[in-house]
Specification:
Layout (H helix, E strand, L loop, with lengths): L2 H5 L2 H4 L2 E6 L2 E6 L8 H4 L2 H32 L7 H12 L1 H15 L1 H18 L4 H20 L5 H28 L10 E5 L2 E5 L15 H10 L20 H7 L1 E2 L2 E2 L3 E3 L4 E3 L19 E7 L4 E6 L4 E5 L7 E2 L3 E3 L6
Parallel strand pairs: 9-12
Antiparallel strand pairs: 1-2, 3-4, 4-13, 5-6, 7-8, 9-10, 10-11
Helix pairs in contact: 4-5, 4-6, 4-8, 4-9, 5-6, 6-7, 6-9, 7-8
Length: 346
């Protein structure tokens, strides 16, 4: 036996010694004299608690986007005739945030440091390149960076339950809150008639413009000023634009739109309270004939009610009324011109 082995135990001879600190092994490299990393010195219980905090936060984020995505899929989306196009739109535009958080959670559970790094990186990229507002820093950047740190150090146990939480809870939320809107959309009435329509009842009788310049179906979006101007140039039939203002057609007022909304072919009993700026209905209206096109991305219309030089009111197919900037241009914000009831429908 060599003398050196008597004075240098094998662990020291290899340049390392192992310490036990609160049940966790901390490795000190004697040659490099490094300070033990924080992650290696946390107890298993502490790391499990930190990991479960990260898992719960991640699950809540995914569940929130699952709730939002399931609602918006059938509120703003689901306007194609094709079922598969609607499914594709749902996952690409509305359910993708939920899927992203599920994937981040699974990745962080499988590869904690890689997943944690991705979470923190996402929290930095989104406010830096997409949403540059103070609110984005508070609602997106800070939580994602903190989540990344928690996943970096945390190790939830048992990890199988953590996987179930991150994956199953958001999916259950999406299904739970999506069933009602899905059934509503499935029961919509669309007769496919896009001609000028007389809609009367609830104290209002108006002729609504046919498909064309007074009821556009393109996906470019229209500002309030553009919509108001087009209405004034519409010909008597509502199918063409004149060279000079005709002032036959106009945008509907809030009161006219609210009183005209329908559900399953019957007036929804809408009443507009201008004092409280609130609309109430006997039954919630929907995106149905004769006013709306169920297969159009447009879900709201401009009204004639201007708030000031910058803002005006818009109405949504479900009867809600909101203020909006007049210069807003969105594919789901359009208009439909009206005129006093005519003797005939063109």
């Amino acid at each position: 036996m060599k003398l050196s082995s008597l004075y240098y135990p094998p662990a020291l001879y290899r340049g390392q010694m192992k310490l036990i600190l609160s049940g966790a092994h901390c490795t000190l490299t004697t040659h490099q004299r490094r300070i033990p990393q924080l992650a290696s010195c946390l107890t298993l219980k502490t790391r499990s608690v930190v990991g479960w905090i990260a898992t719960i936060v991640s699950t809540l984020m995914a569940a929130f986007w699952a709730f939002w995505g399931s609602i918006e899929t059938f509120h703003e989306g689901w306007y194609y005739h094709s079922f598969w196009k609607n499914i594709g739109l749902a996952f690409a535009q509305y359910l993708s945030p939920m899927m992203l958080f599920i994937l981040l959670g699974v990745a962080a559970l499988r590869w904690p440091r890689l997943g944690g790094f991705c979470c923190a990186l996402l929290g930095i990229i989104v406010p830096a390149f997409y949403v540059r507002t103070p609110a984005a820093l508070e609602a997106i950047s800070a939580p994602m960076v903190v989540l990344g740190i928690l996943y970096w150090f945390g190790r939830p146990r048992p990890v199988q339950w953590a996987y179930l939480s991150v994956v199953m809870v958001p999916l259950i939320v999406a299904l739970t809150f999506g069933i009602g809107p899905a059934l509503r959309v499935r029961g919509r009435i669309d007769d496919g008639i896009h001609d000028a329509r007389i809609v009367e009842g609830n104290g209002v009788s108006l002729l609504w413009a046919p498909r064309g310049p007074g009821w556009p179906d393109d996906m470019r979006g229209w500002t309030w000023g553009e919509a108001d101007s087009i209405c004034s140039y519409l010909s008597e039939s509502g199918t063409t634009l004149a060279a000079t203002p005709q002032n036959i057609w106009r945008l509907p007022t809030i009161d006219e739109a609210v009183r005209s909304f329908t559900r399953h072919g019957h007036n929804a009993g809408g009443i507009w309270d201008s004092t409280s700026s609130r609309a109430t209905y006997s039954v919630e209206p929907d995106k149905e004939s004769p006013l709306w096109d169920a297969y159009s991305p447009v879900i709201s219309w401009w009204t004639a009610n201007s708030i000031d030089d910058l803002s005006a009111y818009k109405v949504v197919y479900n009867g809600q009324v909101y203020p909006s900037r007049k210069r807003t241009r969105l594919i789901y914000l359009g208009f439909r011109a009206v005129r006093d009831r005519a003797a005939s429908v063109y």
